[in-house]
Amino acid sequence: MIELRGITREFEVGGRPVHALRGIDLMIAAGDHVSIMGPSGSGKSTLLNVIGCLDRPTTGSYRLDGREVAGLDDRTLSRVRGRQIGFVFQAYHLVPRMTAAQNIELPMVFAGVERVTRQARVAKALGAVGLVERAHHRPEQLSGGERQRVAIARAIVMDPAVLLADEPTGNLDTVSGGEIVGLLEQMNARGLTLLVVTHDPGIAGHARHRLRMVDGRMIE
Amino acid sequence: MLPPGDVLAYSAGALRGHRLRTALSLLGVAIGVSSVVVLTSLGEGARAYVTTQFSSLGTNLLIVLPGKVETTGLAPVMGGVPHDLTIDDVDAVRRQVPEVRTVAPLAVGTAQARAGERSREVTVAGVTADWLGVRNLRLQSGRYLPDNETDRDRSVCVLGSRVAAELFPGRNPLGEMVRVGDERYRVIGLLAPRGTSLGMNMDDVVHVPVRRHLRMFNRTGLFRVLVEVHHRDRMDDARRAILALLTRRHDGEEDVTVITQDAVLTTFGRILGVLTAALAGIAAISLSVAGIGIMNVMLVSVSERTREIGLLKALGATRGQILAVFLVEAAMISAAGGVAGLGVSFAVTRTAAMFYPEFPFDPPAWAVAAALAVSTGVGLVFGALPARRAARLDPVAALSRR
After folding, report:
1. Contact A54 B2 (CB under 8 A)
2. Among B18, B69, B312, B396, which residue's beta carbon has the most beta carbons within 10 A?
3. How many whole angstroms separate alpha carbon B2 and alpha carbon B323?
4. What is the rounded distance in angstroms from the CA atom of residue B34 to the CA atom of residue B342?
């Protein structure tokens, strides 16, 4: 499903090269639940961005569902992100002027899904995260946990194969953090491949496969 | 790719999020558009106004001026002192040029007009009986200057409505005596009010017989001569014949100028066309300033919404879609500003038309269409840079922006 070979990623920071990823080989099977831990700057977020097609590796091969995506053009990568991958961010990244329902609808708008279909799928996603009665609230009227649930609903509304979560509980208290983890595991149980980056060992402990990164390398 | 309805909804939502900012940049466009429309209708109105004013001179008119007017803009050729245009010249034209129907000389001077205790500085026009018809003037009461040979030099005058009202308040001036300069004239007629024509007040004038006028001011030269030609298609023949005749009478020197109304109209039309273009140019500057305003607002918007743009990319929006969203936002501001500006300019021209009913204030259709097209174009052009910037944002960097 996800197949990384010899992935490296270099940046220039202040004129000096930074090696964020130094040769990652990784196989993640469909439906797997994987956690990646590691200290700040270990490259785990960069790895997640590469897997999510937000970032391109400097060298190496990345096959998603058997298709090489490392060399795809911008437009195709956008489509891959829109249809195959769902993102959950630490900071939720909801559009503040839009209601929960409108936020959830957004990926379908850009994928060109028909308006009629969109309403039904928004309702279904809201149901899946248990927020039906909050559909017409704006983010500022929602608690942190509720916001993250809206974000999860938005991530799954296009029915992707992979769900990528970058510190999904980082801004939440223990109780709502636990609820979010539970929700993500539910999604995984329905067959979504789940990849969580965290530095909370309690959350990482739920994963079927636990990976550790240090200094741009996987140390298992 | 992206349904238009959804783009509009998304962009409108973003604009609603910043009402004041949107309203201000919309105002900028509205001012630009309304100044284009108002200023061009001013220019076009001036052109139409001058055209109708000249038409009121009457058609089939030739105007004979003393002196050679070099239309090339060079100084007159120094070939000796030009001859005056005299009453004898007028008689010669009347007798010898068959195309001519009427010849109406005009001498102009200013003098004090006095009646009893009251006096007033007036324009004194020395004319003949034909002047009334050539200039389309109407009499309020009495008679105009006499026509026949025996009476034509009598000391009689016709008063403009303003002069009559000032010198004889509340009285009928007919039959009264008026002293003009050092001479006394009997009032035999009153002109109907005419208002201003080509900047000259037609009511503040005293008409006296042209020969008396020349004697009074001790001159021989006329100010100009209006010639009415029988047929419009003989205008050129008449012009050449008059020129040839007067050149012969003036010792072979071509020292008069004969112009047709068409020539005058064409010249004025050209001048006013340039004026309109200049006004439109000035207005276009304000429109482009408004465009820069839009660009500024959109750049601010893009940098404020960097995280939103990063998110849209993560959710699968392509560069083209993001470009479209931001372009539509800019175009919406400017198109709405264009419509508002049109509203303002119609209000302005209507109001102005109420105060100056004789001045045609209609905004030219081309200016209205161009203002709308240009204002929307302004949004697209000046929105392009911010939209490109948005579309090219790196999603990872955009998402992590605080």
Report:
1. no
2. B312
3. 11
4. 6
**In this structure, what CATH number is given to the domain that contains residue A130?**
3.40.50.300
Q: Cβ separation of B316 and A55 shorter than 8 Å?
A: no
Chain B CB contacts of A74 under 8 Å are 318-319
SS3 state of residue A209: strand
| Total domains, chain A | 1
> Which pLDDT score, from 0 to 100, does residue B73 have?
46
Rounded to a whole number of angstroms, the distance from the CA of A27 to the nearest CA of chain B is 23
Rounded to a whole number of angstroms, the distance from the CA of A55 to the nearest CA of chain B is 7
- The pLDDT confidence band at residue B280, using thresholds 50, 70 and 90, is confident
∠A84-A88-A91 over CA atoms, to 5°? Answer: 150
**Whole-number average pLDDT of chain B:** 85
Instruction: Give B-chain residues touching A158 at CB under 8 angstroms.
Output: 316
Length of chain A: 220
Paired strand residues for A191 = none
Residue extents of the structural domains in chain B: 4-54+266-400, 104-230
Q: Please state the three-class secondary structure of B293-337 as a single string.
A: HHHHHHHHHHHHCHHHHHHHHHCCCCHHHHHHHHHHHHHHHHHHH
Contact B399 A97 (CB under 8 A): no
Q: How far apart are CA B359 and CA B27, in angstroms?
A: 28
Residues of chain B that touch chain A, judged by Cβ-Cβ distance less than 8 Å: 1-3, 5-6, 10, 13-14, 16-17, 307-308, 310-321, 395-396, 399
What confidence score (pLDDT) does residue A161 get? Answer: 94
Q: Give the residue-averaged pLDDT of B261-287.
A: 82
Closest Cβ opposite residue B396 in set A55, A83, A106: A55
pLDDT digits (tens, 9 = 90+) for A3-53: 999 999 998 888 899 899 999 999 999 999 999 999 988 999 999 999 999
CA distance A210 to chain B (A): 25
Interface check A123 vs B, CB under 8 A = no
Interface membership of A73 toward B (CB under 8 Å)? no
Burial of B150 (0-12, 13-18, 19+ CB in 10 A): exposed
Structure tokens at B284: 């276009």
The proportion of chain B whose per-residue pLDDT surpasses 70, expressed as a percent, equals 93
Distance from CA of B402 to the nearest CA of A (A): 10
- Residue B399: closest CA among chain A residues belongs to which residue? A93
Among A52-66, B64-78, B103-117, B207-221, the range scoring the smallest mean pLDDT is B64-78
Among A78, A83, A109, whose Cβ lies nearest the Cβ of B6?
A: A109
**B371: confidence class by pLDDT, cuts 50, 70, 90:** confident
Q: Is the pLDDT of residue B74 over 60?
A: no
Give the closest residue to B392 by CA, choosing from B308, B320, B305: B320
Domain span holding position A158: 2-218
N-term to C-term CA, chain A: 19
Nearest to A48 by CA among A83, A7, A104: A7
- pLDDT tens-digit profile of B80-127? 457 888 989 999 999 998 888 899 999 999 999 999 889 999 999 999
Averaged pLDDT, A51-78:
92
